[in-house]
Amino acid sequence: MSSDRSRTNPNAVAWNGLMRSGPWLALGVAVAFSIWLPLPPSRSQEVDARHGMIKTVFERVPLRLDDWVGEEAPLTPSAVELLRPNAAISRTYRRLGTPGNYNFSLIHCSDFRDMGGHYPPVCYPAHGWTLESETRLLRDLWSGESVRSGSEGGRSAEDVVETARIRLGEGLGDADLAIYRFSRAGSDLQEVRMTVLSAFVLPDGRWTRSLREIRDAAGRRRITAEGVAQVQIAVAGWPAWEAIEEPVGSLVGGIPESVWRSLGAAERSMEANSDE
Questions:
Q1: What's 117's DSSP letter?
Q2: pLDDT digit string (tens) for 38-84?
C-alpha cells in the first residue's frame, strides 16, 4: 500500500529517498571546509575519555522513547568516511497513533572541520535543494530593499531563518534551533518541500545555530580538541512551527538527559544558574 502511494506522490518519493540515504550523502563538500578551519591540537587522555563517554551514552539511547518508536537509519559508508563521527544517533521516529515521520540525527565529531559540510545551507543545496531563506533575500533585492548577503549591514540566509525553541529537560534549560525550508522539483516536476531543524552543540553545552560561531570556537584550543555535536530533525513539507512544536518538543524531551549532559548541558546550566 505505502509503495503505491510513493509512486504517485512526489513528496513521498523524495521523502522515502531521503530516509534511505539521508542528508549525509551531501557531505562531500566537507572536503572544501577542511582548509577553512585550523588544524586540531593533539588530544589528551582527558579528551579521549570524554569522547569515549559520549560514545557510550549515545549507544545506550533506546529505540523506544515514551510514545515514539524509532528505526535505525545508519549513516552510509561514504558519510562515515567524510564525517568521521565519534558518536552518532541516526533514526527515523514515528509517534504512536499519529501520522508522519521525524528523521532525528545527533552527530558528535572529534574534529570541528568534519562538521562543516553537515551544515544544512551547505549540504542540502549541494544535492539540488533550494533554501527558502535565500529565495526571500532575492525577493527583497528585487523589491528594492537594501540587502547585501554576507556583508556588513546586510543580511545573509543565515540571518533570516526562523528559530524554534525547545526544552531539553528539567534543570537543562531551553535550546534554539534554526528552521530551514527547502524545496526542489520532484520526478514529475511538482515541487517537493522539506523542513530541517538544526543546531550545533559546543563542548561547554552552548547551543548555536551559526556556523560562524563554530569558526570562532575553533580558534580556542581546548574547545577545538573536544569536538562539536549537531542536532538535525527533518520533516516532510513546510509545516508552521506551531504545528510541529509539540511533537518536536516531545521527541527531543524523550532523549535521555544523560545525552545532553554528556555534551556539556549540565555544565552550561550550572553557569547560567550562577549568573542569576
A1: G
A2: 444 456 788 889 999 999 999 999 999 999 999 999 988 877 887 88
User: Where are the domains positioned within the chain?
Assistant: 2-275
Cell readout for 117 is: 559540510
Q: Across the strands, what pairs with 177?
A: 164
Query: In this structure, are residues 90 and 61 in contact, taking their beta carbons and an 8 Å threshold?
Result: no
CA–CA gap between residue 218 and residue 238 (Å, rounded): 33
Q: What are residue 167's DSSP bridge partners?
A: 174
C-alpha cell, 267: 555544565
Q: Are 111 and 218 in contact (CB under 8 A)?
A: no
Angle at 102 between CA 96 and CA 104, to 5 degrees: 120
What are the start-end ranges of the H helices in the chain? Answer: 2-8, 10-21, 30-33, 45-59, 77-83, 120-123, 132-142, 211-217, 221-226, 241-254, 257-262, 265-275
pTM to 2 decimals? 0.74
pLDDT of 73-119, one tens digit each?
998 887 788 788 999 999 999 999 888 899 999 999 887 777 766 78
